[in-house]
Amino acid sequence: MNKERLSKVLLSPVISEKAARGAETASQYAFRVTPDATKREIAGAVEMMFDVAVDQVQVLNVKGKVKRFGRLYGKRKDWRKAYVRLMPGQEIDFGGA
């Protein structure tokens, strides 16, 4: 796979209570990814960027919420989320400390 493409697949980690609980219990991390990313591309990008072994990737599309701005209605963008499970003994440290 193209390294330039893999470097653009992951947009950001998802930091939430649910994601933290998954990281602690199942060695599973959540990432915001590009809308056209495939499971193989996501696995390759995580392996390349964090130097870990990926076991499984689950991908889901998150629908944007409808919000009101006074009288007007607006909609947030739809986005794609990936849950990446690592092989046993692997870990990603986002803190950098």
Automatic annotation (TrEMBL):
GO terms for cellular component: ribonucleoprotein complex; ribosome. GO terms for biological process: translation. InterPro entries: Nucleotide-bd_a/b_plait_sf (IPR012677), Ribosomal_uL23-like (IPR013025), Ribosomal_uL23/eL15/eS24_sf (IPR012678). The keyword Ubl conjugation does not apply. Signal peptide: none annotated. It holds the Pfam family Ribosomal_L23. GO terms for molecular function: rRNA binding; structural constituent of ribosome. Keywords: Ribonucleoprotein, Ribosomal protein, RNA-binding, rRNA-binding. Part of the 50S ribosomal subunit. Contacts protein L29, and trigger factor when it is bound to the ribosome. HAMAP family: Ribosomal_uL23_B. Belongs to the universal ribosomal protein uL23 family. One of the early assembly proteins it binds 23S rRNA. One of the proteins that surrounds the polypeptide exit tunnel on the outside of the ribosome. Forms the main docking site for trigger factor binding to the ribosome. This is Large ribosomal subunit protein uL23.
